[in-house]
Specification:
By secondary structure, this protein is an alpha/beta fold. The chain contains 12 helices and 21 strands. The protein has a 9-stranded mixed β-sheet with strand order 1-19-15-18-17-16-6-8-7. A 6-stranded mixed β-sheet has the order 10-4-3-14-21-20, with helices on one face. Bound molecules: flavin-adenine dinucleotide.
């Protein structure tokens, strides 16, 4: 089994040859730091709106090296944050509804661009299933459905599937039922980010790789190769943000780990079903997420080691052996037919988590400094919407996107160490114990430990 080497997605697709690094100091109209989905989508829409703009993207490694080339491949319309918190924005509940509507439309926008730009990302819009694998999880799903209805989401947006309805789609051992949300697509993430990077450079954006930005200030991005001066500098570094001066407590780099099976036999797929390629998660507190890949495997992820002291990062995606074993157990428990295929690859990456678990799109017109991120693990579609919004904000064009409630949202800073490390590790210890207790008890009550965890962390439900 391979471990790390960035991700299975890159290993399967092949990393393209390195693009040149910044040749020296220069000027641009817009300088974007980070070539993941946020930076690349922003560059894409800026150039489409104004082909004359000089846009430079600076990437410390290669385009898609970060979470964008390592994720679970869910293009999900799920809100990255809490409805109640976004509703404190002056636009209130209607602003939240607008943000959710735009996120749903974004799934189709990503699909549209894939067709328009000839991006081969194996995109299938099959929706997403949140399955219940214990009575407590099932009770939470039913409460979640009531909550969705109270926000006006009818059966077109979400519905409950009983066990027979779920089984007719996919066989998940121990699952009692599921919530089904049609607005989600599965992709091969490296295919999407590589195709997007090519589309962006085709449009005339200068994308420099192996170019690390060491500091950002008004009008200036510093690198060891020289300075880029631009009236607009956009920080699109999500889970890596803590590495920039002054940003140590802005976004917590939360780790997520994945494994992928070998190709499954026709007999295994016959017993599992899953022909609709829905993405799947469970309703555990330390939840899992999975997709049926375009090349006939199952890729499954979960939390693993949640956070490294001092906002440390992984080494090219290498995963602890205990995490690989834990994800393998979940996989075989939910899909016993995968035992025949074994695991081919494990990897991990960091996503950005703000202290209040709500994402932000920010543009300060006085300094020209902007940023977007903090999607808390729901960034694939959200980064497209954020990129379109940043493009409008930079161009100073008022649009339906620039008044959405995540624009200008300010999250508190994270606690300093060691409180940050102790808090995150304590939280996930609580969640794992709560999941074990709930599975063993066969009761429909959510464990008090999990409720305590939610209260302490502020994780939205
Ligand atoms: C394992 C995993 C699974 C996930 N699964 C899903 C999922 O299924 N669906 C979903 O919606 N979301 C998922 N996410 C989250 C999602 O992938 C991210 O939110 C999203 O990709 C963030 O995109 P980004 O461009 O903001 O950040 P990134 O993709 O992390 O890109 C940031 C880029 O900035 C570069 N960079 C950082 N610092 C500097 C610097 N100083 N100078 C120059 N360049 C720099 C990095 O090298 C990187 O390429 C997952 C994340 C992980 C890690």
């Amino acid at each position: 089994m391979r471990n790390g080497e960035v991700s299975y997605w890159w290993q399967a697709r092949g990393v393209p040859p390195r693009r040149p690094s910044l040749p020296g100091g220069t000027e641009a109209d817009v300088c974007i730091v980070g070539a993941g989905f946020t930076g690349l989508w922003t560059a894409y829409y800026l150039k489409r709106a104004d082909p004359g703009l000089r846009v430079i993207v600076l990437e410390q490694d290669f385009a898609g090296f970060g979470a964008s080339g390592r994720n679970g491949g869910w293009v999900t319309a799920s809100l990255p944050g809490s409805r109640a918190r976004y509703a404190t924005h002056p636009r209130g509940r209607s602003g939240v509804r607008e943000l959710e509507r735009h996120l749903r439309e974004t799934v189709d926008e990503v699909a549209r661009v894939c067709v328009a730009e000839g991006i081969d990302a194996g995109l299938v819009k099959g929706g997403t299933l949140t399955v219940a694998t214990s009575p407590a999880q099932d009770a939470r799903l039913r409460r979640q459905l009531e909550h969705e209805r109270s926000w006006g989401d009818g059966p077109r947006i979400v519905r409950y599937l009983n066990k027979a309805e779920l089984d007719s789609r996919v066989q998940v051992t121990g699952a009692a039922g599921a919530l089904f949300y049609p607005d989600c697509a599965r992709v091969q993430p490296a295919g999407l980010v590589a195709g997007l990077a090519e589309a962006v450079t085709r449009s005339g954006v200068l994308l420099y790789e192996s170019t690390r930005v060491t500091s950002i200030s008004a009008g200036l991005a510093r690198t060891s190769a020289g300075d880029v001066r631009a009236p607009y500098i956009l920080r699109c570094t999500e889970g890596f943000t803590a590495g920039l001066p002054g940003q140590h407590r802005t976004l917590l780099p939360m780790n997520s780990s994945m494994v992928v099976t070998g190709p499954l036999s026709d007999a295994a797929w016959k017993s599992i079903g899953w022909e609709g390629c829905e993405t799947i998660s469970d309703e555990a507190h330390a939840y899992m997420y999975a997709q049926r890949t375009a090349d006939g495997r199952i890729a499954l992820g979960g939390r693993g080691v949640p956070y490294r002291f001092g906002s440390g990062l992984d080494h090219d995606g290498a995963v602890a052996a205990s995490t690989v074993a834990q994800l393998g157990r979940i996989l075989r428990r939910m899909f016993p037919a995968t035992a025949e295929a074994g695991l081919d690859h494990a990897w991990c990456g960091v996503l950005g988590v703000p202290r209040d678990w709500c994402a932000t799109v920010m543009m300060d017109p006085l300094t020209g400094l902007g940023w977007a991120g903090g999607y808390t693990g729901q960034g694939v579609a959200a980064a497209n919407l954020a990129g379109r919004t940043l493009a409008d904000l930079v161009r100073g064009v008022p649009s339906p996107l620039t008044t959405l409630p995540w624009v200008g949202h300010r999250s508190p800073r994270w606690e300093p160490e060691p409180a940050r490390w102790a808090g995150v590790h304590g939280l996930y210890a609580l969640y794992r114990t709560a999941d074990r207790l709930e599975s063993a008890a066969r009761s429909s009550r959510t464990s008090l430990l999990a409720r305590a965890g939610d209260l302490i962390s502020g994780i939205p439900h």
